[in-house]
Amino acid sequence: MDKSLNDEWFSQIEEHLKCAEQNWLLGAGISFDANLPLMNSLTNKVKKEIEAEHAELYSKIIDPLVNELPNDFHIEHVLSHLGDYAALADRSSGKAVSLNGDVVKLTELEEVHEYILKSISETIRFGYVEGKGERPEQEGSLESPIVCVNSHVDFVDVLFNYSQAGISERRKPINLFTTNYDTLLEDAMALKRILYWDGFSCGAVAFRTLKYGDDFPANGFRANLVKIHGSIDWYLCEKNHIWRVRENDSYPDKKKRVLIYPQATKYIATQQDPFSTQFDLFRKSLNSSNSNLLAVCGYSFGDEHINNEIEVAMSKQNNETVLLAFLECSEAIPACLEKWRSSDFGQNIFILTLKGLYVGKEGPFPRVDGDDFWWTFKGMTDILKNGCEV
Fold first, then answer.
1. What is the pLDDT of residue 167?
2. What percent of the chain has pLDDT over 90?
3. Which residues are CB-contacts of 370 (< 8 A; sequence separation ≥ 6)?
4. Residue 303 and residue 178 in contact, taking contact as beta carbons nearer than 8 Å
5. What secondary structure, in 3-state letters, does the chain show?
């Protein structure tokens, strides 16, 4: 491949990042530098904590449940499996199920579910770095949190204050979709004074006004933030109202449960369930007959629900969405991306990896000699600010 065409592709990436219609899908990888764990480390942390604090329930429920899951399971799979068992127990006359030969009550399943959500929430709220090799374990606390927002602030600053130069008048609000439970994106936008909408109204204690089928607000905001898998500060009260609540508040409801996907089946089935609404907004944003960008960073394409929404949208004949995936790919491109880049819409797939750029079926084409870290959150932020030229 000649260098001129190579340069043309890099120029196309820069043009796509100036698109008037932008959607960003941001996963756990963007919070790694913030001292928050990736999914495997989070899973190890939660398992270790519950085994230490609730050994009997761990042995009776979590251990046999984990043995039913594939080897590459993570904590969301455990929550989902617990939800399935809870739904079965709820329908049974004895309000119990059999797990590994033991009778497990619905109340015990719900108790374990709550312990997991509490562990996830505290880990994400205060920060955690798993110890590996010579790297020591670091664990934040209420008195001494270790979470850092700097990379998120840099990204928000570049996205809204640099990359909009000359196009801010024609650009629509940017849609930020995230699978993360943390509040770093909303904190960063507040610190940079970016007015955003997230489906809630009021202040530190807020109530959710967004309903299934609603669209993004027509005007008044520079960004729309959609947390696909919930948040550590979302709670569902006994009246099925969804609140955004400060840590340690005793109101609006003392019996509150944190909303982190996935929840027990009976909550997913309700009209007020936030997750189906979040996915509906994601689905709508991917369908456009105009130039439309889906930029992905920190997400490893491990969620089949999300992947299916992307594939269905991009395979539509009149859809003009372009996918820019910032992804390490040190070993292999994820199976769904391999499939898509060889499909009829493959020419709209750009994968920016450690080894270079893939465009459709072709690549990788290197931007630098050796490994290229433009796929990281910091590297992607630099591309937004300075372009693809090294």
1. 56
2. 67
3. none
4. no
5. CCHHHHHHHHHHHHHHCCCCCEEEEECHHHHHHHCCCCHHHHHHHHHHHHHHHCHHHHHHHHHHHHHCCCCCCCHHHHHHHHHHHHHHHHHCCCCEEEECCEEEEHHHHHHHHHHHHHHHHHHHHHCEECCECCECCEECCCCCCCCCCHHHHHHHHHHHHCCCCCCCCCCCCEEEEECCCCCHHHHHHHHCCCCEECCEEECCCEEECCCCCCCCCCCCCCEEEEECCEEEEEEECCCCCEEECCCCCCCCCCCCEEEECCCCHHHHCCCCCHHHHHHHHHHHHCCCCCCEEEEEECCCCCCHHHHHHHHHHHCCCCCCEEEEEECCCCCCCCHHHHHHHCCCCHHHEEEEECCEEEECCEEEECCCCCCCCCCCHHHHHHHHHHCCCC
Q: Which CATH architecture has domain 3-35+148-201+213-230+267-386?
A: 3-Layer(aba) Sandwich (3.40)
With vertex at residue 223, the alpha carbon angle to CA 175 and CA 214, rounded to the nearest 5 degrees, is 65
- Mean pLDDT value across residues 7-27: 92
Question: Is the pLDDT score of 168 beyond 70?
Answer: no
Name the residue type at position 186: E
Q: What is the pLDDT of residues 196-214, one digit of tens each?
A: 999 999 888 998 999 888 8
Residue with the bigger pLDDT between 167 and 276: it is 276
Average pLDDT, the chain: 89
- Specify the residue for token string 């993570």: 74
- Under the banding of pLDDT at 50, 70 and 90, the label for residue 382 is very high
Q: Respond yes or no on whether the N-terminal peptide bond of residue 262 is cis (omega within 30° of 0).
A: yes
What's the gap between Cα 315 and its chain centre?
Answer: 23
Residue 2 confidence class, pLDDT cut points 50, 70, 90: low
Better pLDDT: 242 or 293? 293
Task: List, by residue range, all CATH 3.40.50.1220 domains of the chain.
Answer: 3-35+148-201+213-230+267-386
